[in-house]
Amino acid sequence: MKGRYTVMQPQTVRATLLDQVFLILLIGGLCSLNATNVAASDIKVDSASDAVPDVVNMSSIEKYPMKASPSNPELRNLSGAKINLIITTKANQSAAPVVTKTMVVELYDNSAANDLLARLPLSYTISNYSGWDEKLLRMGRDKGLSMADYTGGDEPGIPEVGYYEPGNWIALYFGYIGYWSGKIPVGKIQATCDEIKHIKAGSTVHLEVSSN
């Protein structure tokens, strides 16, 4: 009489276990692949200008610790010097650049502002800084402005022009930024916050000494 259960040969048991393990690994791999695809599809970039990574020198931030007072009135005395920010924009790649706006900046009497004045004329491309109310003039490989008068941090005025040493960029502030280490004020800009905000990213900004 035959029993109710069939006794499997050792080779058969081994093959069945291997099949189960392979199936588990296959299902796990498909789940991981799907999760990767979903994560990739969730990545969004607001604009071409915001896609440029912001390179910040973290060692510089450690070098310039914050201080108790953010006002720095001693760095905001006007020197009497003025510079023009001449903004030119192209309607398209083949079009000639057109001057869309000229903004005057009254420079402060501090090391960064005086250093900038001594280097003029200069030209930079302006970009947005995603998530922050400021426009950036990235100085790239140019030597950073002098931080000789730096006192430990700064809270930018609104509107105002300043310099951020860890990122090596000149910033045009049109909204609240708060107090940050590594910042130093450069000048008082004769423009409204709305005018600065609407400077088109990708425009060229030519900095020159003002004759006014």
Layout: helices, strands, pairs:
Blueprint: H1 10-41, H2 58-63, E1 78-89, E2 98-108, H3 111-119, E3 122-128, E4 134-138, E5 160-164, E6 169-173, E7 183-190, H4 193-197, E8 204-209
Antiparallel strand pairs: 1-2, 1-8, 2-7, 3-4, 3-8, 4-6, 5-6, 5-7
Description:
The chain has four helices and eight strands, in the order ααββαβββββαβ. The protein has 212 residues and is of the alpha+beta class. It folds into two domains: 43 residues; 152 residues, Beta Barrel (Cyclophilin). The chain has an eight-stranded antiparallel beta barrel. Strand 5 and strand 6 form a beta hairpin. The N terminus is likely disordered.
What's the short story on this structure?
The protein is α+β, with helices and mostly antiparallel strands. It is 25% helix and 28% strand. It has four helices and eight strands; from the N terminus they run H-H-E-E-H-E-E-E-E-E-H-E.
Rg result:
29 Å
| Proportion of helical residues | 10-25%
CATH level 1 name of the largest domain: Mainly Beta
Q: Can you tell me the CATH topology of the largest domain?
A: Cyclophilin
Q: Identify low-pLDDT runs.
A: 1-15, 30-53
Strand order of the largest sheet: 1-2-7-5-6-4-3-8
Tell me what the CATH architecture of the largest domain is.
Beta Barrel
Number of helical segments?
Answer: 4
- Report how far the terminal alpha carbons are from each other: 115 Å
Shape: globular
Count of domain modules: 2
Give the helix/strand class.
alpha+beta
Largest sheet: 8 strands, antiparallel, barrel
Strand proportion = 25-35%
Give the total of beta strands: 8
Mean pLDDT: 80
The helix/strand order is HHEEHEEEEEHE
